[in-house]
Design brief:
This protein is of the alpha/beta class. Helices cover 17% and strands 17% of the residues. It has a 4-stranded parallel beta sheet with strand order 2-1-3-4.
Length: 118
């Protein structure tokens, strides 16, 4: 069965154009977006993704359109948290950045957070 078929229903998934060829011809890659109706900081149900942490661990995320805030020590991590734009709906953190921010890195109205595996 081809990779673009739904294994459970047998339906063929529509092609978006992006990634349809090895060179991505047919569409421009878009910035990663998080769809979460009603989540804070969203425009039209979508928002951007950001990452905080050591440059060596987060640099590659720029290729996917993630807004990267490099921070090598706890004070820099806390400063990066303050620079996160309001329309960011997901913040990916390195384990060191998560440790620097503690168990609740943002207030209740802030973005969702995820910590990279060690």
């Amino acid at each position: 069965m081809p990779a673009d078929n739904d294994a459970l229903t047998g339906r063929t998934a529509p092609h978006t154009g992006y990634g349809a060829t090895p060179h991505g011809v047919g569409g421009e890659p878009a910035a990663p977006e998080v769809a979460a109706a009603g989540a804070p900081g969203l425009r039209d149900g979508r928002s951007r993704v950001a990452a905080i942490g050591e440059w060596v661990r987060v640099a590659g995320l720029t290729a996917a359109g993630v807004d990267v805030f490099a921070a090598e020590d706890p004070p820099a991590v806390r400063a990066a948290r303050e620079r996160i734009p309001a329309d960011v709906g997901l913040v990916i953190m390195t384990p060191a950045a998560a440790a620097a921010l503690g168990p609740e890195p943002f207030d209740d109205t802030g973005p969702l957070t995820a910590v990279m595996p060690s």
